[in-house]
Every structure is written in structure tokens, then in C-alpha cells.
Amino acid sequence: MNSFGQLFRVTIFGESHGESVGICVDGCPAGLPLNLEDFLPDLERRKGGTQKGTTPRKEDDLPIFKSGLFHQKSTGAPITIIFENNNTRSADYEKQRSVPRPGHADFVAHAKYGGFEDFRGGGHFSGRLTVALVAAGVIAKKLLKDIRVTASITEIGGEADPEKGLQKAIEAKDSVGGIVECRVSGLPVGLGEPFFDSVESLLSHAVFSIPAVRGIEFGTGFAAAKMFGLQHNDAIEDAAGKTRTNHAGGVVGGITNGNELVFRIAVKPTSSTPREQSTYSWESGLVEPFSVKGRHDLCIALRVPVVLEAVTALVLTDLLMREQHIKRVY
Amino acid sequence: MNSFGQLFRVTIFGESHGESVGICVDGCPAGLPLNLEDFLPDLERRKGGTQKGTTPRKEDDLPIFKSGLFHQKSTGAPITIIFENNNTRSADYEKQRSVPRPGHADFVAHAKYGGFEDFRGGGHFSGRLTVALVAAGVIAKKLLKDIRVTASITEIGGEADPEKGLQKAIEAKDSVGGIVECRVSGLPVGLGEPFFDSVESLLSHAVFSIPAVRGIEFGTGFAAAKMFGLQHNDAIEDAAGKTRTNHAGGVVGGITNGNELVFRIAVKPTSSTPREQSTYSWESGLVEPFSVKGRHDLCIALRVPVVLEAVTALVLTDLLMREQHIKRVY
Amino acid sequence: MNSFGQLFRVTIFGESHGESVGICVDGCPAGLPLNLEDFLPDLERRKGGTQKGTTPRKEDDLPIFKSGLFHQKSTGAPITIIFENNNTRSADYEKQRSVPRPGHADFVAHAKYGGFEDFRGGGHFSGRLTVALVAAGVIAKKLLKDIRVTASITEIGGEADPEKGLQKAIEAKDSVGGIVECRVSGLPVGLGEPFFDSVESLLSHAVFSIPAVRGIEFGTGFAAAKMFGLQHNDAIEDAAGKTRTNHAGGVVGGITNGNELVFRIAVKPTSSTPREQSTYSWESGLVEPFSVKGRHDLCIALRVPVVLEAVTALVLTDLLMREQHIKRVY
Amino acid sequence: MNSFGQLFRVTIFGESHGESVGICVDGCPAGLPLNLEDFLPDLERRKGGTQKGTTPRKEDDLPIFKSGLFHQKSTGAPITIIFENNNTRSADYEKQRSVPRPGHADFVAHAKYGGFEDFRGGGHFSGRLTVALVAAGVIAKKLLKDIRVTASITEIGGEADPEKGLQKAIEAKDSVGGIVECRVSGLPVGLGEPFFDSVESLLSHAVFSIPAVRGIEFGTGFAAAKMFGLQHNDAIEDAAGKTRTNHAGGVVGGITNGNELVFRIAVKPTSSTPREQSTYSWESGLVEPFSVKGRHDLCIALRVPVVLEAVTALVLTDLLMREQHIKRVY
Q1: Which of residues 86-125 of A touch B (CB under 8 A)?
Q2: Cα gap D77→D137, rounded to integer Å
Q3: How far is Cα of residue A216 from the mean position of the Cα atoms in its chain?
Q4: Which of A162, B23, D166, D241 has the most beta carbons within 10 angstroms of its beta carbon?
Q5: Taking the model in full, what pTM does it have?
Q6: B223 in a domain, yes or no?
Q7: For D162-204, how does the pLDDT look when each residue is reduced to its tens digit (9 = 90+)?
Q8: ipTM greater than 0.90
Q9: Is residue C330 part of a domain?
Q10: Count of domains for chain D
Q11: In a domain, B119, yes or no
């Protein structure tokens, strides 16, 4: 449900236009220094800032620490972080209530929760919740120390040059999708727990909780399906497990092999497109033309890298704890 | 670790060349009729039989029921099923011990378990364990009743015609990868549990426990990253949620929307290729030429569909139970 | 760790003298009406109010709803409730830092968290956190509808009349322990999940998270150890499972049998006694006389009943959901 | 359900008169030597042997290892151990089907599983399953090394001298209950995970899965409810946390404090008493006289100590792993 992780476990809550969104981080070892400043860079990256194609709502996104810190260090007790929702214009959404927006969770949420769901801005399904993931990711990254998690855009709208892909979207007056790649260096050999908690299993589990993700592939990924065995196999070159190539993307048999961890995710185009669409109306019972109000990101993929880093860091921290690479006391 | 599922939970165990492989299925409602005959068709499909490109070892693969059945019906207690390993030639593997085979888990298992792992034939990492998944899948499929889970090969070695792809491998005297697609019809709207237990999260978690899987995509998947929003959005056409197109593959916001569930996985080429490779030797400390002994599947993807159906059925059964669509008493 | 429950799951956080204490309730079905007024009676009961022997700190104990409610009804998303800590005088505790108080968690917390724990007023180990349990219990009780959970004091300081026991403590200028009994009527037959999730297992698990609890017994409990079989066995009298006696306390084989659920817990005397004690000092390295500052409850057992009801309601709600007695939509 | 533990996790299965009972132990570090001889002493203790008052059925109770061992050492993969049921006389039970035996799970199992349960000899609810717990306990005890877990009878039928209590039962031609005490020496300070996974919470959870247990108390336990604070508090005497008295039984704030862990459990009289009882008959719809067939233990408590040691060892191993006192490689 809304919790994830075994020894390092997060519980997420909140809605786009409710009181707040937040996260409770359980299992953080005591003694980790945590200041407001640690959180700001990643929170800023998530906003997309002045980046073309992102138009975040104007939220301060200041983390409010409700538990688990003492003298600006973790105490070993759960750390709860809340972000208040201030810049919400719910009235816009009350009007749109009659139409389940295509690509959004409106229809399924309504069916699942019998109409009691907070539908404003996607409610609990909103990308707004990723701000909480990013905050938890900051803690995880600090625990990872020399292990570096880096995600970046590799493709927008089919173009390797993101600016080009974005330009296409602007010209088409439409939203557009993209590819984000994540690389992790410095991992020890041996992370991942057979049979069901392989590195790929846990990472994909976490990754698909990020809204708009439609696919994930490790190493060579889908291209591996077209390859011969001799091409794909990575010859091991030394006692530390260094391989000549890295088609495996750093994971063999579900376990890290000491080479760089590499995986990519596909992000669909923002469901809220500026173009007119048509969809069923609960009010009229007919399929009707429909336009999304307000400003929205043309390309949600642009804001995904820091979120992807966060969930990756959460998973790796948990796996490192299970393998006892992270000690209880910092 | 070796358990998966919340209300319908499996625990898998065993090794390729140990005593047995098996699975314990917990949470099956009482009263489900289960006969040996229910298991044979899927177990046979997994063997690959006379299919070109698969050369399974000669195992009977007869499930032995150790608990949970009474008068050939489930009792509500855990159902344990064991498959004995008879056709094992461990001597072959003792010889190969000095070389961590490229693409296999030999190297990571050795590092993780300090040399105490059962290395014969991949041990606990072996594809042999999928026979236990298939058995559990048979139980899940019976619980799913009118919900149909069907997986099939859509591509081998880059060819839409599997025979052609396989022929390429035979000519190249090499192994080859493939794509398997899974479709599920008859699902109700509303399966999947925010925030972390989305349908994609749970399916991908289970799917990546199948050896050799390197990627997964839902609906349009990676192609969605190249699309515009208007193209990708599925217009809703009626009160039941039927959509004009199905780019979402039946899942929106992590929740089933009542349309066909569609996803694809990438399977890498069999790591044991007939071609000579080179790899590091623990014995000599050098990179040396290396050849795999014995007969192996040219294309492991050919045996994956029934395994993919099994893990898909496990996940969906669990989600249906969480949503109370499957009652306790059959 | 700080989460408990399977389908109805709570995550607790906070410290006695930190920002706040709170709880996140996951799995509450959508559509449950929840108003501030629903919470006040139980929160008031926990304070002990004007009761002799309890001297709660002056907190408003007003629940602040941070997520999961919309139009004063549950939405199906996690409900987060926070209580702010206003009436804290941490300075008192800074002084006492050099002495691990007997009976308190000071010593073990220091060892476990390397000195980084928030030690003020017991920190995360404080009875203060039970205010959050009570709030979650209010939600659970509403879901239980006609199932009535009632806990009451049956003994203080060895006296069946609580007033007498309390009077003894006042005269002795010492704190004192007590017994609390919980009774639940209206339960269906069949709750509890073999082998490890028996009703007694889950209730005792939850109950021992309440600070100061030292024992639990079901039905006749410890007295059963002195009985003969014929005496103890409850003869079944009708098809509904009504028994002539109820030595089993409503649970047989770990499963509810439809009779009243009855269990008792032992609560130790408040560790903070007005009497002078002696204990080891980290500062001097010597055993020294020691007195607790401030006002404390003479008998913490007096405030336990409503907390016991709360954890009991949490467990039963979860078990009812597992058996599908509570539907998703209210 | 039928799994317990986080990092060291067991899954139990089987029925009294089915094919077998067994257990799957997941999370055992690789490299632990395990021979048949390691298991025999505890398995023998559980049988009760020639002890007056126990009349176990004649089973060899030989563990059959189905997975997880290689060259008589653990491999890191799950260890599955099975005990076959040979000495079963099911015909006896088919006759008794019409009567839900008082004190047994017959009635609740029938209600819960709709009549599909394996009712023979208690089926999945039978004390027979404790043989599997004992086997898992042997593994846990080996991992605990210098930490000694010892349980013993302290009272039978209200008599401190077990022989006396048993004699009373023999004279009364009735079954009788008893008290078992468990002591653990050598534990480090700091085991137990706030808020919900206190040492008492996890131990009681596990302990109440043992059939016939009706109560548990730690340290002074229920007697603490009659004490004053000054009496009950254990004065700390040195930097290691040694206390003058041990009323806490080695657990303060849910965390081990380095002193001996002490707790007691109440075991009810064997439900199958030689005396004639009366109970409802499903067949006649009337309350009728009823006699238990066959030979049964007069005092089931006599066989509990080794089972109590086993579940205690399981819990402590898991907690030690969470605190990283047990390393992955032996």
C-alpha cells in the first residue's frame, strides 16, 4: 500500500490539494546530520525551475520536520517530513468533476473509492507526492555516502537532444514523453535478495510508483532480446568482477556484480495536453470535447530525474542495510 | 526474500541440483478442487517439449503435494508442492567450478554467500525454480476463473516470426533473446493499491524474479516516450471505462481500468551459448577461453510464456483478494 | 518497526518533547465520516482528567488532520493525524541527562542509538505516543460498528476497588501498578489466521507496544495452568458455538469462537515514583541517590483502558478485513 | 499467516494426519554447519520420551532436508525441512467428525474453512506442527552461539513439584495445565525495535502460535500490578546496565537491557481429557455426552519447553540480525 522498504521503510501520504503531502522515514540510523540545506538542492531540481517545458505550481516546497530529529541529527526514531499545500486553486477542479480526464486516474479512483476520493488535481494520485519521495531520497543519498546515484534525460519525444524534442512539442502545441536513464557507481558486489527481491524487482517496484512511468529496462534492456548470447554476455576480467562490456547493467542473477548499475525508464507524455480531446462525461453520459484548464508541464519527464534518483537511493539503502553495509550508528 | 504476496503469498525454495525445488502457497481459500491433471498442461508447456530451440533436461516434473490438500480440495492451510530433482549430473558442474560463467549468477553468488552456495547448475538461481512458479500459477489461474491470462512470444532475435529468429540462432550457432507479451482479459476496474503497490509495481516485481528478464513495458511502453499527449491518451467512451485505444495497456494511475491488461518483457539470450567465450578463471587468475558443456536451450524466451502467466496470475489473485473479489470459501 | 497491521496498517511517529507525535492510518475504506467530535471523547478519557492518581500534562490533544480526509469523510488514501507538543519543559530533562532513570528506557535507548536519541521525557519511548494510538483507535472503532470493545480497570495495587489501591499508593507516597481487562462483544466466528497470526498473537503483539505492560492472559489465563481439563473445557451448546462457560475467553485454536473475547493485561507501577531511588550515574560513574522531578501519574494503569481499546480495535479491524467482513466502501 | 520473522523468516505448513509437516527457513546465513545430529536432541526432548504424563504418537520425527544445504552447510538459500506423517490412524477421526471437541479448534476451523478443513487430529491446528518449530529452532540456536535459551517447567496443576501436579491429574483421571519459564542469558543490550516490534511484542506473537498457551508475562509480570514503584524499579548498578534486581526480566522500554531475559507462559490442560464431557453434536443437533478416543498427553505443558526455546530462538535471531550482531557469512 503506502509503505515501501524492509529495514529502511517509507510511508507516504497526502493529496495534491489537501492539507499537505508528506513521508515518514523509518529505519534511518541514529546520528545522521540533517539540515534544511541538505534538502533544498534536490527539491529545487524537482521543480524544474526555469527549465523550458516545465511550469510547476508556485509552492515553496519547504520541508517541515515533525519527528525524528534532535539537534539536527537523526535519532533512530521515524523521521516525518511534511510539505504544506498552499498554492491550490481547488475551485478549478470542482468544475471539472464531471469529466474523467483521459490519461489521469480520475476514472479508476472514482470506481475504486466509490466517489469519496479527493479528486482535486489528482488527489493522492498526483505527481505532487513526488516531492515527498525526493525528501526521503535526500536522506537515503546521505546514507549512501560514496555511492553516487545520477539520473538524466536521454531522450525527449524521440530526440536525443532534449531541446529539439521539446521544440517539437511546443510547435505541436502538445505534451510529449521522454526517456530517463539512471546510473549508480560505487556499489558493492552482492546486493539483492533471491528469489523475489532481486535488484531489478525492488527497483522496478519503486520506480513504477512514480506517476507516468510506462517501462523500465536494465543494461541493454529490450535490445538484448535481439542479440545473440556471445554478444550479450559480459566477459569477467578480474577477481573483483569487472566486466569487459556492461550489457547486464551491473546486475546478474538479480544481484549487483560491482559494475555500474544502469537502467532506463520510459515516461509517457503529460496527460494534461493543451490540445482539445474528447472523452466520456459522467454528467451528460456522452462523449464530448474536452479541454484541460490551467498551465501544465509540456513534458513531465523533465522533472523525473531527481525523483528517479530518490527511489533508487531508497531501494539501495534498504538493500545495503540488509547486507549490513550500513551500520546502525553513523 | 523468497516470499511474495500479501494475502495470497508464495514461498519458493530449492536448487537446480539439490534434493528438490518447491513452493508453499499460503492464502488459498478452502474448497478449491485441485488434481494432478490441473497441473500437467502448464508444466508440459514449460518444458518446451518438442519445440525447436529448447532442450529441457529430462525431468518428469510431477508435482508432489506435501500439505494443504484433503480429498483433492484445498483446505485453507498452506499448500506445499515439491518437485524432485532426479536427472542431475552434478559431476559436470564440479569441474566447471573454477570459472564464473559469463551471464550466470556464479560470480555474484560466490561473493554473496562466501563460497557456500550450491553452485551446481546455478543452484538457487537456476531457471529450474520456475517449475515451482508454474505450479503456484496453476492454483492462481483456477482462482481467477473467468479472468484469462495469456502470454505468447512476439519476437525472437528481432524477428516477428519466431521460427525465423530461431533459425538465425541455429545458423549462428549461438543463443538468442526474445520478447514475450502477456494479455489479461476480464479484469474488474480498481485493482492496484496506491502509492507503492500499483499494478505495474507488483507485476514488475514478480516478473523480474524470472531469470533472464531485462525489461518490462506496459501498453505502448517505451514507444510512449516518443509520442505526443493527444496520441497517447486513451479517450474514455462509456460509463464502464471502455477506451477507444489502449495505449495505457489497461492500467492508469497504477489501477486497472477495465480494459485489457497488456505488457511485454524482454528476455536476454540464454547465457549458456554453444560459442566459445572468454572469462576470468578463479583457478589461474587469468582470462581464459571457456566453453559451456552439455545441451542448453538456444532461446530461453521460448519457455517463458507459461512462467509469465504464472507470476501474473499470482499478482492478480493477490490484488483481487485485497479488493475482496475472491471470497474465502470457493 | 513503527508500522503495524496488514490491510489496516498504522505507522506511528513522534517524541514526547519533539515537534509532535502522530500516526498514519493506511487502509481505511473510503467514505467513513470522521469529525473532530468523533475523537474528543476517547482523547479525553486518555488524559485521565480529574481522576485521582493521574496528573497529565496540560496538552490540548487536538488532532490535526494532515491527509486522507475530504468533506469530512475518509477518501481511501492514508489518514495522517498529528498532535503538536506545546506543553513541554525540556530544560528539566537536560539536567537529568546524566542519570538513566530506573524503569525507563533511558539506558537502553542510549545504548541502542549511540547517544543520539531524543532523551527528553523518554523521547520516542514516551507514553505520550499513546495519544496517537487512541486517535487511530477511534477510526478503527467506527469501522467495527456493532462490535463493542470495552476496557476497564479491575485491580489497582492488588485491590479490586481501584480507589482503595490508589489510596495505598498515596499513603505510601509511591506509584502503583494495576490490571486492565478488555472485553469485546459482537465478534463473528473465524477471525485469526493460522499459524502465526492467531488472535492472541496479534493482540499481544499490539498490546506490548503500550508502555508499562508486563503480561497478558486470555480467558482464564494463568489460572488455567492450575486447572483440570474437564474444568477448563468450555462445552459447546448450540450450532452457533455458544459455550456454557467461557474459560477460553472467546478464542480457541487462535480463532474467535463467537463468544465474548476476554483478556487482561498487567501494568507495572509508574517508573517515575515520588520516592527517592538510587541508580548509576553516567556523570560520576557511581550509584547515587536520585529523585524524579515534576509531577507524574501515581498509577499509569488508570490511563491505559482507552489505549488498550484502541490497539484492540486496530487488530480486530485488520482481522475483519482479512476475512472480508469490512467492505471497501463504507 | 503462516510466515513469521523479518530477516530470519520461517514458513510453516502441514497437518497432523496429512502427508507431512514442515518448515521453510529463509534468511539463514551461508556456511552454518547443519547435520542430522544437530536436530535429534531437541526433537527427542519434544517427544517427551518416557516422561510420565506424555504419550506421544510413535513417529520417528526424522527431519528430511529438501533444500538449502550443500555439503552439510547452509548455502544462504531457504532451508526446507519436512517430517513425514506415518503413524496416523485417520479412521478414528472420521468417526468423531460429528462432534466439535471442546477446547479444540474443530468448531472454529469448520466455520472458517467451510467444512473443507482437514479435521483429522486437528489438521493444521495440531500440536504436531511444533515438531517443525523445533527443527527451525535448532538452526536459530546454532546461530545464537553463546546466547543460551533455556526453558523449563516451573509448575504443574498448581504444584511447584511437577511430579506432584501430575500425580493429582492421574488420580483425578483428568488432564492438567502448567507453567513454563524461559530464561536467556548472554544477550546484548539494544535488541527490540520501537514502536511495534518490542522484544515482548515479538516474543508474545511467536509464543501464542504454540497451541494451548493462554498467557505470557515478563519479569515479575502480573505480580508487578500489585507492587509499588520503588519495589519494582531495578536500580542500575554499573555502566554495562547490570541491575540490582531483575523485575523487568531483562526488557525495559521493549529493548533488552543486558540482564537475563525472563518470561513465563501459562499452558492450559490438554483439551483431550480422559473424562467424559458433554458437547453439541452437529449430527443430532443436541448436547450429548462425549468421550475422547485414544491415548493423549495428560499434561501438554511437559512437552512445551523445547518448543518455547525454539520460538524464542527464532525471534532473537531475527532481532540480532536486524541489529547486525549476526553477520551474513558464518
Answers
A1: 100, 102-105, 107-109, 111-112, 122, 124-125
A2: 17
A3: 12
A4: B23
A5: 0.97
A6: yes
A7: 999 999 999 999 999 999 999 999 999 999 999 999 999 999 9
A8: yes
A9: no
A10: 1
A11: yes
